[in-house]
């Protein structure tokens, strides 16, 4: 009983936080250490409907971001993790799809950095971005004195246009590729396409084109090359979704960045085999924990 009471007394403190926004506030969780707060960070979720804990209704469970936050709190690092605009508790903050741009997500991350610094009393905070969140973090950190440095986990290392071209090249019938690539060329040039091919409407529908135009211009290699504060690149060696070669590209662009390759971990930073089906099956296995190496590597980097 005494041991349980002591453990409860030493538990991190979880506090709901709200960020003013239009058309509705954004919501997150501030997790502070029971003892001294030695540093503070914002955890930025990856793509799709991923919530503050790292879960998604399309098949990701187990809360790896929550686990990361809890482990960092044990080491003296406070964190804010938040539901992105339009997701989970921040659903009411969704804007019309035609008005949503990648820049809006970057602006949100910058605002969360300011709020986290205010709430924790730190002069600056770290941005910990996962997957697409790493790209958002890079853009939000540029020329931003409120950001101490970056932790980029499972980061994308090339512009989105190159990735989309590869995916279309591998998945489309040959007859459809010229038209698809022509639409992508127009979007990369900053021009919308009024009537994209019906078969490609899910990707290129007119209402999503403003977002794609703003996303396609973001260059992760250029961002990291220009960044002069500390950077940690962390990648699972078993990541089959965004291979570790992406981190290698970023490390080449910014030789001062530190690199941590986690043996046996996949894109969601869990132990996983290289077999594709078995690897992807771990995304939905809530019993699997965050890889044991991740939080110590992040905390050691932030606190040293």
UniProtKB/TrEMBL annotation:
Serine aminopeptidase S33 domain sequence ranges: 62-157
Range of residues in the leader sequence: 1-19
Species assigned in the record: Brevundimonas naejangsanensis
Record keywords: Hydrolase, Signal
Pfam families: Hydrolase_4
Highest classification ranks of the organism: Bacteria, Pseudomonadati, Pseudomonadota, Alphaproteobacteria, Caulobacterales
Descriptive protein name: Alpha/beta fold hydrolase
One term of GO molecular function: carboxylic ester hydrolase activity
């Amino acid at each position: 009983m005494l041991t349980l009471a002591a453990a409860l007394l030493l538990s991190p403190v979880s506090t709901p936080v709200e960020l003013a926004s239009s058309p509705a506030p954004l919501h997150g969780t501030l997790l502070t250490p029971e003892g001294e707060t030695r540093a503070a960070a914002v955890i930025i979720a990856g793509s799709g409907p991923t919530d503050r804990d790292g879960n998604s209704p399309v098949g990701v469970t187990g809360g790896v971001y929550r686990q990361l936050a809890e482990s960092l709190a044990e080491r003296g690092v406070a964190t804010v993790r938040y539901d992105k605009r339009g997701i989970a508790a921040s659903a009411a903050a969704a804007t019309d799809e035609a008005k949503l741009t990648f820049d809006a997500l970057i602006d949100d991350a910058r605002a969360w950095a300011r709020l986290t610094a205010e709430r924790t009393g730190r002069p600056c905070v770290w941005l910990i971005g996962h997957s697409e969140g790493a790209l958002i973090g890079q853009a939000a950190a540029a020329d931003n004195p409120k950001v101490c440095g970056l932790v980029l986990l499972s980061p994308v290392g090339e512009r989105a246009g190159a990735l989309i071209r590869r995916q279309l090249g591998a998945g489309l019938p040959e007859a459809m590729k010229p038209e698809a690539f022509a639409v992508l060329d127009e979007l990369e040039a900053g021009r919308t396409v009024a009537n994209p091919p019906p078969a490609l409407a899910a990707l290129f529908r007119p209402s999503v084109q403003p977002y794609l135009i703003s996303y396609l211009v973001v260059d992760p290699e250029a961002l990291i090359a220009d960044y002069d504060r500390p950077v940690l690149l962390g990648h699972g060696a078993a990541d089959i979704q965004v291979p570790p070669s992406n981190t290698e590209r970023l490390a080449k662009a910014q030789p001062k960045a530190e690199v941590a390759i986690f043996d046996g971990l996949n894109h969601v930073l869990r132990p996983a085999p290289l077999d594709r089906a078995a690897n992807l099956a771990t995304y939905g296995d809530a019993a699997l924990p965050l890889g044991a190496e991740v939080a110590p590597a992040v905390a050691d980097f932030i606190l040293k």
